Amino acid sequence: MSNEISLWIKKLAVTAIMVAIGYGIYLTSNTIIMLGVAGFLTILITPLVEKWRKFHIPEWIIIVVVYITIILLATIVAVSIVPIVIDYFASIIRQVTHWANTAQDTYLHYGIQGFNLPDWLENAILYVVSPENINNTLDLIKQNAGSIQTFLTSQISSITSGGISIVSTIGNMFTDVLFIGIATFFMVLERKSIGQIFLDVTPDDKEDHIRYLFSRVQEVCISWIKASIILSFSIFLFTYIGLYIAEIIFHFSTERVFTLALISGIMEFVPYIGPILSVIPALIIALGISWEASLVILILYVIIQQAENNILVPYIMSKNLDISPLFVFVIMLFGATLGGIIGIIVAVPIAGVLKVLYTDWIDQKKQRGRYALHNENNISETLAPNPLEAGKNLFKNTKKYLAKAKNFITPKK
Questions:
Q1: Tens digits of residue pLDDT in 52-93
Q2: What is the 3-state secondary structure (H, E, C) of 316-363?
């Protein structure tokens, strides 16, 4: 009875320990995720550090230069996009207010044709609304032009009224990014010690294989960095040339050709959604010019993206990474949930690493299968239907087994 009680006490103790460990992991899940992201960034940065070490540059300087470059690129994007959005909203308020003040005068002098609407839209308006009601409506709009401006301004203010929550969110994000940056910095400097710890807990017969896997992971990361840089520069160049030519041919000016091209190039590092997001600031500027400019810029960006998807990506990525887009998209969703924007950016190399591990597992499985098949073939050769071959194999195996039996029976001196 006492043995059963002690056994139950041990089971309860083990269960309590497992629950405590699980609860501890739950409480520190955010820290564990950030350490995982830092570890992956360490794998990305390590090849750059190893390459520039040949020039006898201290490692910490290389890491700081990488950080400064990333911060500069992020700052350029933020500083470029924010003024565009502000100018766009200010332009909308000015245009709506001006239209509200002048719409009735335009209608009284030129009729509905003064608004330069398509014929089908003019006919539809005149069919639904009488000319007298149109004039009354425009008069009401003119009388409330000031109220309309106040309403639009208040709506834009309400968008930014959540400044405290926005600042809080940005503050939390900055804290996480700072933690990841510091952790990555020290992980890169202490990478050899960390690697040795992993090798110390690895079985001796698996060390060479672990080193091989790590080298393959580094190759994938280097390939991703090269491919991303080439794609980013290509899209920047194509966007810059395309916008410059479009402005000359269609006689409009965005005044931000370089900025828009730079945004498009940098957003290439964000898989799939980056190119879509890069169109938004360009369309915002174009809408402030004319709908013709908006249409031209939209068509230009679609052509560039189609050229990228059908020419650049297959040519560049096939030489560096051969990963299923669906697999990358799924990893990107998990990355967005766990690591935010950083998780989205590193989705492609993470997918590449997972593919390396999966391919290695399949290769190991095939090798074990070939080994088992080889043993089966040896047995089948021993029991081969050819009498001569069967006799030779039987004699050979019998001689070998008798020699082993003799060594086993004969006492050692």
A1: 877 888 888 888 888 888 888 778 777 777 776 677 677 777
A2: HHHHHCCCCHHHHHHHHHHHHHHHHHHHHHCHHHHHHHHHHHHHHHHH
